[in-house]
TrEMBL record:
It comes from the Bacteria. The keyword Ubl conjugation does not apply. Mg(2+) binds at residues 74, 92, 94-95, 204. GO terms for molecular function: 3'(2'),5'-bisphosphate nucleotidase activity; metal ion binding. Keywords: Magnesium, Metal-binding. The keyword Ligase does not apply. It comes from Streptomyces benahoarensis. Coiled coil: none annotated. Its cofactor is Mg(2+). This is 3'(2'),5'-bisphosphate nucleotidase CysQ. SUPFAM superfamilies: Carbohydrate phosphatase.
């Protein structure tokens, strides 16, 4: 199958444990760097400085540890040679920049994912202010379900779709910052599903999707297709990540809403 074949699995774990460990270590260490920056006084734009420092750190470490691999980063110009590369790291050095710039908020993240020949192969999402790093290195079944069906949605631009879903499913909506934070909240049992529509890129979801799938969560795009990575256009505007127990109900609701909208 070609790298863009829709039949290819979204996640096929690399058999090299060093790749999983590297993703985990890079996300975690970049998070430590960001925490240190956050405590420094005098920054007029800490989010921009965080993006820059974290990106420089991750690029330097990948160049040293995986010099033959390509990189797609939110904070760097897109090197189109990645499209011919066998291995591509997809990184978001600071996901949830607004939350990073607000004192006391923990819903920001560092995303590090590895794509190999058509599928995600490793990933890590660090939540530095919460002291947590989730990755494909050490996996476990999802935590118990929340007592009430809960949908995680964008804090700054919640899509109208989530309101329609909540009404249809009698669910509550929990606003949150970073895409990684929302996806890991589903994994940890704070929420039942994370649903997004209205604009994202590959670096926003690659690591969260890899980690979610490695831990047994369900993933799809709103139209039912699988998300694909290392594409010529890195735009990937919608996503749903769901706990297995809620998947059938949520997928049916998404399909019903799509059918209604198409009439």
């Amino acid at each position: 199958m070609s790298p863009t074949d829709d039949r290819a699995p979204v996640y096929i774990p690399t058999q090299d444990p060093a790749d999983h460990q590297l993703a985990h270590r890079l996300a975690e260490t970049a998070g430590v760097l960001l925490l240190a920056l956050r405590s420094e006084p005098g920054h007029t734009n800490p989010s921009a400085e965080g993006d820059r420092r974290s990106n420089e750190f991750l690029l330097a470490r990948l160049a040293a540890d995986r010099p033959g691999d390509a990189v797609l980063s939110e904070e760097s110009a897109d090197d189109r040679s990645r499209l011919d590369a066998r291995r591509v790291w997809i990184i978001d050095p600071l996901d949830g920049s607004c939350e990073f710039g607000e004192a006391g908020r923990t819903d920001w993240a560092v995303h590090v994912a590895l794509w190999i020949e058509g599928s995600l192969a490793a990933g890590a999402v660090a939540l530095p202010a919460a002291g947590q790093t989730f990755s494909t290195w050490q996996t476990a079944p999802p935590c118990p379900d929340p007592e009430q069906l809960t949908l995680l949605a964008s804090r700054s631009r919640p899509p109208a779709l989530v309101g329609d879903l909540a009404e249809r499913l009698s669910a509550r909506i929990q606003p949150m910052g970073s895409a990684g934070a929302k996806a890991m909240a589903v994994l940890s049992g704070t929420g039942s599903a994370y649903v997004h529509a209205g604009g994202q890129y590959e670096w926003d979801s690659a690591a969260p999707v890899a980690v979610a799938l490695a831990h047994g969560l369900r993933v799809r795009r709103l139209d039912g297709s699988a998300p694909r990575y290392n594409q010529p256009d890195p735009s990937l505007p919608d996503l749903a990540i769901c706990r297995p127990s809620a998947a059938e109900e949520l997928w049916d609701a998404l399909d019903a809403l799509a059918s209604h909208a198409g009439r």
